[in-house]
Amino acid sequence: MPKVIEAQIEYHYQQACEIALKEVERRARLAMREGPRLIEFVNAMGISFFTTEEDGYAEENLIKYPAAKPTMDLICEWDQYLKLSGCPMRFTADGPVERNW
Question: Which residues 6+ apart lie within 8 Å of 39 measured at CB?
Fold first, then answer.
């Protein structure tokens, strides 16, 4: 494959990752505003979850916290291709995104 084509593929892959991560952040912030028990969204090292006061984290408890479902659905659908859960980020509904902790 020519290097020009490889560069184009890499460029578009990086663009897709950035778009998807922005959408993860948008959906997660919306979820925390809609589901007041959801306190923080955490994403790193292959795992993504919301924290709650009651349960600590709500990775698989989407029945109890339905506001989290759109965020988690997006990650589940695209993680195998874009490795979204490997991008470190954590934030509250209105707080800044922390990438190094």
Answer: 32, 50, 51, 52, 53, 92
Instruction: Say if strands 38-44 and 89-92 run parallel, antiparallel, or are unpaired.
Output: antiparallel
| Pair of tokens at residue 98 | 């922390």
Phi, psi of 31 (to 5 degrees): -60, -40
Tell me which DSSP letter residue 21 carries: H
- Domain containing 81 equals 3-92
* Residue 99 falls inside a structural domain: no
* Under 8 Å between Cβ of 75 and 26: no
Question: Is residue 16 one of the residues assigned to a domain?
Answer: yes
Q: How many domains does the chain have?
A: 1
The model carries a pTM of: 0.89
pLDDT in tens, 42-101: 999 999 999 987 777 655 566 688 999 999 999 999 999 999 999 999 999 999 999 997
Write out the two tokens for 27.
Answer: 């959906």
